[in-house]
Write a structure and sequence with these properties.
heterotrimer, A alpha+beta, B alpha/beta, C alpha+beta, B: alpha/beta, about 10% strand, C: five-stranded mixed beta sheet, 3 helices
């Protein structure tokens, strides 16, 4: 006699400790096996695009902070680049160098939270504490520089809101040498941890062609084995002057493109960011960081799309200007929004507990998914 | 004035009103609902991590509202989420406390004017005990908010309230 | 690697009237205007043709052009009648490293655009967002529901339209400040 079974629907979220915010997943499950995943978004839809239309160009910058709140520097920068491109502003060298350094520091800080919460979700709580300890060093550097810990409003159109703190160079150098040694701790504690590998290797394998077709970017794409990084493939600012590698997933613990690969790409990316900072920190030229900030921002009529490599992937700003002081339309192409779309493909056929591991390895921030 | 600060001469006996005992017990182990909404949630996480250590005030995150004493509304509340927060609040056993963390939860924050999908203040849906201003508030500010909540609990009365 | 003019000419040869115009006046990027009911064919061609290889859709944005006539509503607020809604497609080729921007426009009252969801999978949610916030209907989209706003939000109310009016209450909660 065979038992009749039924599939059941399990709601994960919007209040759930492992969904990284207010995401709701509707799982169709057969026992523990996931048959289908339907994400429901919009629980943090804060109307960014409407606000951008109602503000002047420079007033939009603080709102961009609140998109991907773990990587606020990158958001500021992407927006500033777009408006600068539209207006044809050339920013001073000093500004470029400072922007690169703060963006790379931000990438490290963002990956620290990503890795920590990925591990904490699947049961390894200790690395979370260690990563947050190191993150505080970066936050204190930022606090010296612009007065805020998380949402900076630092990179403005044409320049920066403040010059760097006199101790900035010294503190960054201290941090780089400190973290170069400490990152090994993370490898020993987590990367090669047997239990962690069991939970993440061969789970949620993302094949390369699916990744490209779904538009995945950032570590989610590079984990599948293609070295595509906008800092090198579509260079902006002064990234072409620095020497760095682009880590890709190689399937060291399982198949190429599994959760462990995406995790490991982030760890190695932090090292590369340290490398870039090391090359840049000694060469900050003298100058005024506010000299290129226009008195009145009124770009010509037209459209512009720029993209930068944020910690989570390709962050694009599409701006339409109608020649007024307010943008006519600002659309954000948020990396998490696009990366999250692939979740349904990845989770099929895995267990419910694996959904958490996969979601953590994609690393979403609901602020920019819902905007 | 804490319960144990009272002087006593006789062995292990403390004489105190039962109110004081209850309040002391409640304020020293506020279990919060592990629940983050937006940017402020990251600062809330930072507060419970190694540097600021929320745990020393007896605050630990519980993942179910049925076992939680307090809920920290950490971030922007949207209309879609507000109905869910109300349900979470109703699921919590009394006595229950609310800390509204950050400008968005207090009054809509930067989204007050054009936020067509943002609830302008969580107090339109559930009652709030302590407001913590900031965008986002520093971890120290959240700690201060918690101390204020503890003060509030310390002076609570068990007597039936006369309306 | 091809520039916008070459791409426009190739498209013109293959699709004739479905490819309407090339706008080179914008300061940063050229925009090719395409027929909204042929965009999926143009997209499929751009993705598969060996000289094009546009395998990644970077961004898809719905825009309210607000180029219609402004008239007063019954309660005295401005609404827009006529004019168009547009969709912008930003394409990039990973292998050939060239970019192009496509644009389609459809009448505001009944904006219908063919879905490119089966050409680039990532268009799925972008199109749902454009439907939700701007109110463009994508034909042949598998699952065209609201994505950001609640499912029970007022029918036909799209927040990113320039003449959008916020409701006073939603489920008993006051919406304005």
């Amino acid at each position: 006699m065979s038992l009749k079974t039924e599939t059941m629907v399990l709601n994960m979220g919007p209040q759930h400790p492992s969904t990284h915010g207010v995401l709701r997943l509707e799982l169709k499950i057969d026992g523990e096996l996931v048959l289908d995943v339907k994400p429901h978004l919009g629980y943090l839809h804060r109307c960014f695009e409407k606000h951008a239309e109602a503000m002047q160009y420079n007033q939009v910058v603080p709102y961009t902070d609140r998109l991907d709140y773990l990587a606020a520097m990158g958001n500021n920068w992407g927006y500033a680049l777009a408006v600068e491109k539209l207006m044809g502003i050339q920013v001073p060298e000093r500004v470029e160098y400072i922007r690169v350094i703060v963006a790379e520091l931000q990438r490290i800080a963002s990956h620290q939270v990503a890795l920590g919460s990925n591990a904490a979700d699947i049961g390894a709580f200790t690395p979370f504490l260690y990563l947050f300890r190191d993150r505080e060093h970066i936050l204190s550097i930022f606090e010296d520089t612009c007065g805020a810990r998380m949402l900076y409003n630092y990179i403005w159109v044409g320049g920066l809101s403040h010059d760097i703190h006199p101790d900035f160079v010294k503190k960054v150098k201290e941090f780089v040498s400190y973290y170069k040694a400490t990152i090994i701790e993370l490898d020993n504690l987590l990367s090669y941890n047997k239990i962690f590998i069991e939970r993440t290797a061969n789970i949620g394998v993302l094949p390369l062609d699916t990744a490209i077709n779904f538009g995945a970017s950032g570590p989610a794409l590079r984990g599948s084995g293609i070295p595509f990084d906008l800092r090198r493939d579509d260079p902006y600012s002064i990234y072409d002057r620095f020497d760095f590698e682009i880590p890709v997933g190689k399937g060291l613990q399982g198949q190429v493109g599994d959760c462990w690969d995406r995790y490991y790409v982030r760890v190695r990316e932090m090292e590369q960011s340290l490398r870039i900072i090391e090359q840049a920190i000694d060469h900050i030229p003298e100058g005024d960081v506010q000299s290129a900030i226009p008195k009145r921002i009124k770009p010509p009529k037209g459209t512009v799309y720029t993209r930068i490599e944020n910690p989570r992937g390709e962050l694009g700003y599409f701006i339409i200007s109608d020649g007024n002081t307010n943008p006519f339309r600002v659309k954000v192409r948020a990396p998490s929004f696009v990366n999250l779309e692939v979740l349904g493909e990845l989770c099929k056929g895995h267990l419910v507990a694996d959904v958490i591991a996969i979601l953590g390895s994609i690393d979403i921030v609901l602020g920019e998914v819902d905007r | 004035m804490g319960l144990l600060d009272k002087e006593f001469s006789d062995g292990n006996i403390v004489i105190a009103p039962v109110e004081d005992l209850f309040n002391w017990a409640r304020l020293s182990s506020i279990w919060q609902l592990g629940f983050g909404l937006a940017c402020c949630a990251i600062e809330m996480m930072a507060t419970s991590m190694s540097h600021y250590d929320f745990d020393r005030f007896g605050v630990i995150p519980r993942n179910t509202p049925r076992q939680a004493d307090a809920i920290i509304i950490s971030g922007t509340v949207t209309l879609k989420m507000a109905t869910r927060i109300k349900r979470l609040y109703e699921q919590m056993p009394a006595p229950k406390y609310i800390i509204s963390m950050g400008s968005c939860a207090n009054c809509g924050g930067p989204y007050w004017e054009h936020g067509y999908h943002v609830l302008k203040g969580i107090d339109r849906v559930i009652p709030v005990d302590v407001y913590v201003p900031g965008c986002p508030p520093r971890p120290e500010a959240l700690l201060e908010g918690l101390l204020k909540l503890q003060d509030k609990i310390r002076n609570e009365s068990l007597r039936k309230k006369s309306a | 690697m091809k520039n916008a003019e070459e791409i426009f000419n190739i498209l013109k040869d293959n699709f004739g009237d479905a490819v309407i115009a090339l706008d080179k006046d914008t300061p940063t990027e050229a925009v090719i205007t395409v027929d909204p009911l042929k965009i999926h064919l143009v997209g499929e061609f751009l993705r598969t043709n060996e000289d094009m290889m546009f395998d990644s859709l970077m961004c898809l944005s719905g825009v309210d052009d607000a180029n219609g006539k402004k008239v007063k509503d019954a309660d005295g607020t401005d609404i827009i009648e006529g004019g168009t809604l547009s969709v912008y497609y930003h394409l990039h080729s990973v292998s050939l490293k060239h970019k192009i921007t496509l644009k389609v426009s459809a009448p505001r009252e009944d904006a219908k655009v063919e879905s490119v969801e089966n050409v680039w999978k990532c268009a799925d949610w972008h199109e749902r967002e454009a439907f939700d916030l701007v109110g463009i209907k994508f034909l042949n989209h598998p699952d065209l529901r609201r994505i950001m706003m609640p499912y029970d939000w007022e029918e036909g109310s799209h927040p990113l339209r320039k003449d959008y009016k916020n409701p006073e209450f939603y489920q008993g909660m006051k919406v304005p400040y």
